[in-house]
Amino acid sequence: MDYFNYRNDELFAEDVPVEQIVKQYGTPCYVYSRATLERHWRAFDSAFGAHPHLICYAVKANSNIALLNLLARLGSGFDIVSLGELERVIAASGAPDKIVFSGVGKREDEIIAALKIGIRCFNIEVGGELDRINRLAGQLGVIAPVSFRVNPDVDANTHPYISTGLKENKFGIAFEQALSEYQRAARMPNIKIIGIDCHIGSQLTETRPFLDALERILALVADLKAAGIVLHHLDLGGGLGIRYKDEQPPEPADYIRAVLDRLGEADFEILLEPGRAIVGNAGILVTRVEYLKATDHKNFAIVDAAMNDLVRPSLYSAWQNIIPVRMQNQAAEQTWDIVGPVCETGDFLGKGRTLRLNANDLLAVRSSGAYGFSMSSNYNSRPRAAEVLVDGGDTHLIRARESIEQLWAGERLLP
Ligand SMILES: Cc1ncc(COP(=O)(O)O)c(C=O)c1O
Ligand SMILES: N[C@@H](CCCC[NH3+])C(=O)O
After folding, report:
1. Residue 354 and residue 247 share a domain
2. How does residue 43 score in pLDDT terms, banded at 50, 70 and 90?
3. What angle do CA 259, 264, 270 make, to 5 degrees?
4. Bridge partners for 146 per DSSP
5. Which domain holds residue 404?
6. Ligand 1: centre distance to CA 281 (Å)
7. Domain boundary among 277, 305, 338
8. Which segments of 48-107 does DSSP mark as H helices, in order?
9. How many domains does the chain fold into?
10. Which residue from 316, 317, 319 has its CB within 8 A of the most atoms of ligand 2, so it is best to mutate?
């Protein structure tokens, strides 16, 4: 359920006609719904009831500071993977002690910044990172709170590019090495072990792989306890999928109930790092049809958004629904490839879509709130799209469309 619906054949974002947003801000344009974003976050948070927990929204899914700030106001924590994301959370008034820092390649300056600001936890993904954090914490005279991201080697049953919990993936400490890494950490003077972490992949549509991973993690937790290492929290990562087409992912409440049922009396604080499930269906990408091009083989609708704005179709062959902003019956129904202006054959937003189209029509690509703007680029020297947040009947420009001059800001001619 979201808040992008038709009223009298016209698409609305909450109470605002999408056409009105386009008149004000142009295309291509990302449009987000505050009500949807907040409802999705609360669905995770409330499912825990009284069980100690922290929802750490995965900033990479959509890192606009207005959205981060709305989540911070709800009490959200944040899962970050870079200094840039750390600074975004701070700029959005996120609480440092609710930040967990994931990622396989944390640089020294990133670790130092996180230690200085006092984040909740480092999710360590490689042995050398433990040594580095211990050394830098010592230099700063602080104790670093850590957990290890363990690779449980379970099949998340998702697209191979977004599966992260198999032993051939680069992520996390190998399951077999985890115990000895924890023991090594326990001997370090500037390290405090507080938890364990895993994240097995993204766009998961079943509960089973999550529970398989949890089983592996709990086995390790028992081994750690036997070795005298007691944990405060379990971080089960993100990855819960959304409906793009006909997927039927579990509701957050179903997933969380299954986790809590399995935990029984165990009173670990549970951390989750959902990204897509919170913001994916809270956003659309609005684009205008520039030209219609019919050939003997195919019909192309050439639109003004492209793979630089939304790369998921090109990168993962991801299917996202494309719908008209205004339903109309004048044009004949035909099958279209919806393509962008970028000079790549792989530049498409959707293929084989049956639509009634005229040049100049507006289209909305649904489910674009996650990994849409945050993965956008300037390829072909295309300024990045505007981002607009709708709140009931109000619209807020939360990121201005990039100007042409911004494209080469920072570049220099030789003297
Ligand atoms: C460590 C980590 N946590 C959380 C997420 C968020 O994943 P999702 O957007 O699928 O919930 C990701 C991305 O897959 C990740 O790599
Ligand atoms: N960017 C991917 C998901 C990767 C998640 C990052 N760990 C997508 O659009 O589906």
Report:
1. no
2. very high
3. 50
4. 122, 193
5. 4-32+280-408
6. 16
7. 277
8. 65-74, 83-91
9. 2
10. 316
